[in-house]
Amino acid sequence: MQILDGRKIANDIKDEIAGVVSTLRSNNKKAPHLAAILVGDDGASETYINAKVKACERVGFRSTLIRLKEDVSEDKLIDHIRNINLDSDIDGLIVQLPLPGHIDEIKVKQAIIPSKDVDGFHPENVGKMALNLPTYLPATPAGILELLTRYNIDISGKHCVVIGRSHIVGSPISILLARNSSPGNATVTLTHSRTKNLKEITNKADILIVALGKSSFVTSDMVKKGVCIIDVGISRIKSSKTKSGWKLLGDVDFESVKEKASFITPVPGGVGPMTIAMLLKNTLISSLK
Ligand code: GUN
């Protein structure tokens, strides 16, 4: 079994991006600039946003973090987005999800100008992705493809099973895997909470992508020998054994499946760092346009 070391690959990508930024700077060009909006004080979102801001610093990007109160109105949030849309110094904008229940997520996604939508969540960009047109690919699915590519794992003609149909991961990764593109050309089964005989389906997977947000959901009896497993899940469990008081768990019971898998992503250190690296890559692309 080989570990797919997302932390290492993400660091390689960040080094590549830092090199481009350094060349831009020495040619008196401006550094790429990412703006992020965080609504409320959800602990997990706070951790992700801080990691994104830190990654910007690491590669020489500028970043602007706008923190809004949990009870901010939808209109006020959209005002902030419109201001950033018009700010020519800012190349990319993300609004950290999930948002509080009183805010309509789709309205927010549509308010971001597609040219700065480095999350790739605007319907125009989702449509382009589905049609195989150039656009920003959503960071987590793009990170999964990049990880597979850099480990030379060919997905063409393989049976990829995806668990979970979220707009952020499950749905876009299933589209990307099946596109007539490279990487792509996989045979894809997208499974979800209404899927019958899940175990029968997952046992046929050459590549299993798990993104449902239930810790240790996938066990050894659900996978065939030689499977490549991509674990996107990340649940924070209270723990007395760690300094932070939290432990991170994936959607896959790592200990149980590790003897059967040929490749597997660890949690933490697998898909998470790749998501951030691909967000930086999208922001760089936007700044070069
Ligand atoms: N919440 C979980 N993943 C993501 C992501 O990739 N982007 C944003 N904006 N919010 C998220």
Please, could you describe this protein's structure?
- It is built from 10 helices and 11 strands.
- The chain is of the alpha/beta class.
- The strands form 3 sheets. A 6-stranded parallel beta sheet has the order 1-11-8-7-5-6. A 3-stranded parallel beta sheet has the order 3-2-4, sandwiched between helices. Strands 9-10 form a two-stranded antiparallel sheet.
- Helix 2 links the parallel strand 2 and strand 3.
- The chain is globular.
- 42% of the residues are buried.
- The model has no long low-confidence stretch (mean pLDDT 97).
- Residues 94-97, 119, 139-140, 168, 275 line the site of guanine.
Summarize the structure.
With 289 residues, the chain is an alpha/beta fold. The chain has ten helices and eleven strands. The strands form three sheets. The protein has a six-stranded parallel sheet. A three-stranded parallel sheet has the order 3-2-4, with helices on both faces.
